[in-house]
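SEQUENCE AND FOLD
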Amino acid sequence: MHAEYGEAGPGGPVKMWHMVPDEKHVGLCGRELSEQAATLNSTEWGRTDETCCRACGVAWFQSVPFLADEHERKDYLP
């Protein structure tokens, strides 16, 4: 995950998180991101205070398998 910043740039707050393949600086949504952007592990998706890019989320979750046996039902079902 790479951060996108607002008008203040990398010195300012994170505006949104994007999912990026490998070590590239382009989100799955196509947005180019700063090479100095903060990064997080993909397991942090949806756990940040800041918004996560919806388009990146759709692309990411369509590309990785969800194996229900590897998760606790209480974590993904109400």
About this structure: Helices lie at 54-63, 73-76.
